[in-house]
Structure formats: structure tokens, C-alpha cells
Amino acid sequence: MPPKPPTSCLQLPPPFLIPRLQINHVPKRGIRAVDPPRPNRFNRSQNLPLLTSTTAAALQRKAFTTPLRTGALAIKKGMTAIYDPQTGRRWPCTVLQMDRVQVVSHKTRKRNGYFAVQVGCGWKHPSNVTRPLLGHFAGNGVSPKRHLVEFKVRDERGLLGVGEMIRASWFQEGQFVDARANCRGMGFAGGMK
Fold first, then answer.
1. Contact (Cβ atoms closer than 8 angstroms) between residue 177 and residue 168
2. Strand partners, 151
3. Which pTM does this prediction carry?
4. Which of 33, 112, 118, 166 could serve as 101's disulfide partner, Cβ 3.0–4.6 Å?
5. CA distances in angstroms from 9 to 5, 12, 20, 64, 190, listed in the order given
6. How far apart are CA 119 and CA 21, in angstroms?
7. Low-confidence ranges of the chain (pLDDT < 70)
8. What is the pLDDT of residues 25-66, one digit of tens each?
9. Residue 23: per-residue pLDDT
10. Which of 142, 141, 138, 139 is nearest to 120 (CA)?
11. Which of 113, 112, 107 is nearest to 159 (CA)?
């Protein structure tokens, strides 16, 4: 057994014999955020505007994304190319047919809650049109159309007259347009031929 080292009077006693000072320290539980606080999504603070859920407020929010003018309907006939003689570049082009595109009716905010133009294209025999739809066309003085589409516009300045024809001159040369199409459908073949 090794000898004990000499003890001196300046040496501190073991830690379990030293009386502890009682500190009333209650640790806070949780995680401290490093990022700044996010705005309250329930809109309860005093400096935020009140949320409005009226129809007029919804129309005011949508005013920036609603187009000023109506669109047009066309049928894709194929593709072709245009050659630029100055640069010698070939530009692919889509050929579209605007077949009797006409304004059938419009919807107003007073009557329907929003502004829209109903546009029709093509022709359909009156015997193949339902009576309510035939009355709709006859009431507006327009021949029955094969396709009917509604284009929302921002205000009454975008409403065209009923019966007015929309031609290719409705668009300007070099104007960018948003195109949407329906697939003409190839038929269902199933899993096996």
C-alpha cells in the first residue's frame, strides 16, 4: 500500500463536504430562435391592415392579373416555316384558322359579379344544338357556334359588342400571346393492341 501524501492545513476539504450556496436558478426550457421572428399569419397585430373577405376586395386583388382584352379562338391546321431573307434563318410557324370567331355575349359585374366576354367559333347546325342554347344564340342575334369559351376581362373597357367579329388583326405583329389547346384525342387502345 502506497504511503499517504502529507496533508496541509491550506488544502481544501473534499467537494462533498463543502456547503453549497443555494441559487434559485430555474432553467428555461425550449429552443432560442436564431432567425428574427416571423410576422403573425393570423393578422392580429395593430400595424397590419384588416383582412377583407368581400367580393369587391377579391376583385381588387385579382385586378392586376386579369387581362385587359379578350382572347380569340382558333383551330390548328399544321406547321410551316418562314425564312428571313436578311439573316437566312428559318422560323417555325404554327398555322391557325380563325373560323367565324364572334362575340356571343358578355357578363357584367352588376349582373354576374365579374366582367367576361363569351366568344364562339365555328358553325353548328341548329338541329344539333339544344333548345336553351339555341335561345341563347337567337337572343343575341348570333348563329350557333361549335365552340364557346369565356374570357375574363378587367373592366367594362374590355367588353366588345355582341356580334362583333374577332379577326387576325386583333393581334399585333410580334405580340406575345398565351396559347392553350385541347388535344384532339387519338382514341383509347388499351394495354394491348
1. no
2. 117
3. 0.64
4. 166
5. 13, 8, 21, 87, 99
6. 87
7. 1, 3, 5-10, 20-35, 37, 39-51, 192-193
8. 666 666 666 667 676 666 666 666 666 777 778 878 888 888
9. 63
10. 142
11. 107
Backbone φ and ψ for 50, nearest 5 degrees, come out as: -70, 140
Q: Which three cell numbers stand for residue 146?
A: 361549335
CB-based contacts of 134, cutoff 8 Å, min separation 6: 126, 144
Which of 122, 107, 120 lies closest to 152 in space, CA to CA? Answer: 107
**Per-residue pLDDT, 145:** 94
| Angle at the Cα of 107 from the Cα atoms of 105 and 109, rounded to 5 degrees | 160
Query: 3-state SS of the chain?
Result: CCCCCCCCCCCCCCHHHCCCCCCCCCCCCCCCCCCCCCCCCCCCCCCCCCCCCCHHHHHHHHCCCCCCCCCCCCEEEEEEEEECCCCCCEEEEEEEECCCCEEEEEECHHHHCCCEEEEEECCCCHHHCCHHHHHHHHHHCCCCCCEEEEEECCCHHHCCCCCCECCHHHCCCCCCCCCCCCCCCCCCCCCCC
